[in-house]
Write a structure and sequence with these properties.
Protein name: Enzymatic polyprotein endonuclease reverse
Shape: globular
Number of strands: 5
Helix content: 25-40%
Structural class: alpha/beta
Strand content: 5-15%
Radius of gyration: 20 Å
Largest sheet: 5 strands, mixed
GO molecular function, one term: nucleic acid binding
Distance between the termini: 35 Å
InterPro entries: Integrase_cat-core, Retrovirus_Pol_polyprotein, RNaseH-like_sf, RNaseH_sf
Keywords: Coiled coil, Endonuclease, Hydrolase, Nuclease
CATH superfamily: Ribonuclease H-like superfamily/Ribonuclease H
CATH architecture: 2-Layer Sandwich
CATH topology: Nucleotidyltransferase, domain 5
CATH class: Alpha Beta
Order of helices and strands: EEEHEHEHHHH
Number of domains: 1
Pfam families: rve
């Protein structure tokens, strides 16, 4: 797997309407590097989602081979399906009964909410202005699954943080030296990221196996089926 080969999309909202008219967030995460992006949008209509997906994600990071979404009406719409079809993207729906498939993106939502609640104004109408700062913080913080910052895995160098008052001297390279070092670092970091993700999944499975209990049913048994709420929930970012 390479960066941006497989990604996940989701919608957060409705939130408090900002002074700019935004009410939702289109969120995106690369499955390998965990690099994430959140795009403020005024509505969650299918044409809006498709346009933002193309202009703010694909035109910046390239066309993914696979995209994971839930079964919201916007992602299940003909407009979004045709967008994926034209771009030859395999669209994978996550069922309501297996939301853990998109767990990494959901966790980034909680991190985003925690950041925003410290900075938004009292009437919560400026949260969209803080999104770039929040996402920069998220992408320059080491991720537990990879042990690298998402920024480094994507761009192959550590970001210079605004809080850094001094910078170490930078070595000088000729082009061949730089290209060779970049190639070696790319190979090493990608391999290590894959290993860390595999270890994290094994830990999660081990923890799940300890607590999970298999329920056996016989033909004729009566069962209750839990029906989840459809899109339109407003608890994605409770901090807002």
């Amino acid at each position: 797997m390479k960066p941006f080969e497989k990604c996940a999309l989701d919608i957060v909202g409705p939130l408090t309407v900002t002074t700019s008219g935004n009410k939702y967030l289109l969120t995106f995460q690369d499955s390998l590097t965990k690099f994430s992006k959140a795009i403020p949008i005024a509505n969650q209509e299918a044409n809006t989602i498709s346009k933002e997906f193309v202009t703010k994600i694909i035109l910046e990071y390239g066309i993914p081979e696979k995209v994971l979404t839930d079964q919201g009406t916007n992602f299940m719409s003909d407009i979004f399906k045709n967008t994926c079809k034209i771009l030859k993207i395999e669209k994978i729906q996550i069922t309501a009964y297996h939301p853990e498939s998109n767990g990494a993106l959901e966790r980034s939502h909680r991190t985003l909410a925690e950041y925003l609640k410290h900075y938004i104004n009292a009437d919560q109408t400026d949260w969209d202005e803080w999104i770039p700062f929040a996402m920069f913080t998220y992408n320059t913080t080491p991720h537990t699954a990879t042990e690298y910052t998402p920024f480094e895995l994507v761009y192959r160098y550590q970001a210079d943080l605004p809080t850094a008052l001094t910078k170490p001297p930078k070595p000088t390279y000729d082009y061949d030296d730089y290209a060779q070092e970049l190639k070696e670092r790319l190979r090493a970091t990608n391999q290590r990221a894959k290993e860390n993700i595999k270890e994290e999944k094994q830990k999660a499975k081990k923890h799940y196996d300890k607590t999970a209990k298999e329920t056996k049913f016989k033909i004729g048994d009566k069962v209750l089926v839990y029906e989840t709420l459809r899109r339109g929930r407003s608890k994605k970012l409770d901090a807002l």
